[in-house]
Automatic annotation (TrEMBL):
It comes from the Bacteria. It is a peripheral membrane protein. One of its GO terms (biological process) is positive chemotaxis. Keywords: Bacterial flagellum, Cell membrane, Cell projection, Chemotaxis, Cilium, Flagellar rotation, Flagellum, Membrane. Belongs to the FliM family. Residues 256-325 form the Flagellar motor switch protein FliN-like C-terminal domain. This is Flagellar motor switch protein FliM. It is found in: Bacterial flagellum basal body; Cell membrane. One of its GO terms (molecular function) is cytoskeletal motor activity. GO terms for cellular component: bacterial-type flagellum basal body; plasma membrane. It comes from Streptohalobacillus salinus.
Amino acid sequence: MADEVLSQNEIDALLSALSSGEMDANQLKEEEKEKKVRVYDFKRALRFSKDQIRSISRINENYARMLTTYFSAQLRTYVHISVASVDQIPYEEFIRSIPTMTVLNIFSMEPLDGRIIFEINPNIAYSMLDRILGGKGNSLNKIENLTEIESTIMSNLFEKSLDNLQEAWSSVADIDPLLEEFEVNPQFLQLVSPNETVVVVSLNTTIGETSGMINICIPHVVLEPIIPRLSVHYWMQNEGQKERKPGEYEKLTDNLSSTILELGVVLGETKISVNDLLELTQGDVLKLNQSIEDPLIMRSDEEPLYLVQPGQQKNKVAVQVIEEIKGGSLDDE
């Protein structure tokens, strides 16, 4: 906890009280010697450090961008998703904080233990459903009487987004997420004990003109095996050190070798006024800045590559390579 800084007025008042005898300096020293006790709530144990929470937040910021792209393509409308907050709270508190009737998708995270919950606000869920069925994305909350077809459509929509979840977590763990359950009543869910610490990632979600929240609940038991990887030290140590997959280099080389590259050779250049350009007629001669005795320059995307000399081959204009321009630069330029 940071030390409290006194203002100048508070310092003057303290000195005045000491000098007038209203406050005893010895009494202050005795109070400083007393042990300071901080209240700790064992029901709200903080099992993740701030560093680890920041890493989880960074992973889900990337995931939110992926979801934005995915839902925009699936729903064919404006979608914006961003991370609102990342908190660690008891599981019981998370269950109490969400609506009594809502949309819940439960995913396993193999090979990690446990399961995670996606809670989608009914306004967002029905806006998605309306868009998929050809509507304008209006929200109609009738969560208590979802039909089997509507439940299947919602489940399929989020099940297809699992590739994005897998990619977002690939920097710290190779997971294979799988949709296991679809539920509308959070009281029927008991993934972990009520006092178990969970990380809740809240995503601000806008679909067309409808706004709401998507909450991701990740129990501590799921993240426990990879907690050491949720640190700045791990991220910095592994940055740029990923090994290439077998055959990846050869495949990349083959693709580059077959790439079509456009080459160009300029015979020469000159500058004339706009008036002279307008008065050009057939038979006029323009003097170029290129001597017929000097080699020409072959370029690709304005980058000089070779010195060449013009010629002819099989009744077509051609050039012959004389010398490579080292480093893509010219000594005389």
